[in-house]
Amino acid sequence: MITERERQILRWIEENPLISQQELAELGNITRSSVAVHISNLMKKGLIQGKGYILQKNPYIVVIGGVNMDIFGHPDAPLVQKDSNPGHVSLSAGGVARNIAHNLALLGEDVKFISAFGEDAHAAQLAEGCRRVGMDISNSLTVPGGVTSTYMFITDEHGDMMLAIADMDIYNQITPKFLETKIDFINRASLCIVDTNLSSESLRYLAENCRCPLFADTVSTTKAKKLAGLLYHIHTLKPNKLEAQLLTGIEITDESSLRRAAKKLLDMGLEQVFISLGGDGVFCANHHGQALLPCYASESVNTTGAGDSFMAALAWGWRQGLSLEDTARAGLAAASICIASEETISPRISAKAIYDIIGMMPPEEAE
C-alpha cells in the first residue's frame, strides 16, 4: 500500500527526475533521512528503479516455473483401492508457477510468465489460456518436438489429493544458459517468483543472479531440498510444516518449535517466511515480528491450488506494502476463496475480494 507521503514524493520526482533528497526534504518539510527511508520503501515496492530515480510506470512480476495440463479425478464416494471408482474426470491448466501467475493476473498484476512448452495440443491450449487471462508468455521457451508437462491427480470425496503422477521432464530445458538470456528482463521486475520444478542448477543461477526480491514456492518436500544453501539469496519462502522441518532440521511439534524453525529460516538468510499449517492457518515471521494466524472459515470443495493462491496473494500483498500480518491474512483470504471453488483457480479471486475478507479498505477507496 502506498502512503500519502510516498505519493507526494513520487509526484515531485515525476516533475523533476533530477531532484535531490535535500530538495525533497525541503519541499516536504521533513528531514533528509526521512526522505531516504521513503525512497528506499518506494524502491522495495518496485515504483522506483535503482539510482537516478528512474520511475517504473508499470511494474511487473516475473513468475518462473511449471505449467502443466492437469487431469483431475474426483470420486462420487469414498475411494476403493484397486477398483474402478465412479466419479468425474476433467482437464484444466495447472502447474504451481502457472497457477500463481494466473492468480496474480486476477489480482490485477502485470505478470510475465516464463516456462517451457512442448509442441503438442496441450501446449497450444495452455498458451492460449495464459494469454486469455492476461499473462505474458513471450519470454517462455517452446521445445521443438517436446511433450508438455502433464500432471494427473485423484482426490478423495472431500477434494483432498490422494495420489498423483507427474510427467515433467520438459522443465530440464529451462537451463541456466536459457535463463541467462532473460536475466536483464527478470531484474527489471518488481519481484520474481520461482517454483522448485526448476532444476537445482537453474534455481542456483537465479538465486545468485536475480537482483529483484526473489520469492520461492517449495512445491513439495522432495523438491524443497533444492533450496538448501540458497536461502541467503531468497527474500520470501512459503514452506509447509514438513518442508520447514526439512530445511531447518528442527522437528516441529508445538508452537515453540514452530517459532524456532521460523527463526532459523530467517537466520539462514530469508527476509520473511510464511509456514503453512494447513487447516490450522499460517505462522508468519520476519526480522521485526511474528504471528500465528487462523484460517478464514470456508466450505472445502477442492483444496488443490489453495497453496498457489496463497503464494500469489503474498506477493500481491508485499507489492501493496501490507504489513507482515496483513500479507499473511491476504494469503489466507485467497486460499479460502480457492478451496470454496470446484476449479483450481477461483474466478472469484480479486483484490477487492481479498480486501473485503481481511477487513481493509482498498487504497483507491481510502483516498
UniProtKB/TrEMBL annotation:
InterPro entries: Carboh/pur_kinase_PfkB_CS, PfkB_dom, Ribokinase-like, WH-like_DNA-bd_sf, WH_DNA-bd_sf. It is an enzyme of class 2 (transferase). The keyword Acetylation does not apply. Its EC number is 2.7.1.83. PROSITE patterns: PFKB_KINASES_1, PFKB_KINASES_2. GO terms for molecular function: pseudouridine kinase activity. It holds the Pfam family PfkB. Coiled coil: none annotated. SUPFAM superfamilies: Ribokinase-like (SSF53613), Winged helix' DNA-binding domain (SSF46785). Keywords: Kinase, Transferase. CDD domains: YeiC_kinase_like. Residues 60-347 form the Carbohydrate kinase PfkB domain. PANTHER family: RIBOKINASE, SUGAR KINASE. This is Pseudouridine kinase. It comes from Anaerotruncus colihominis.
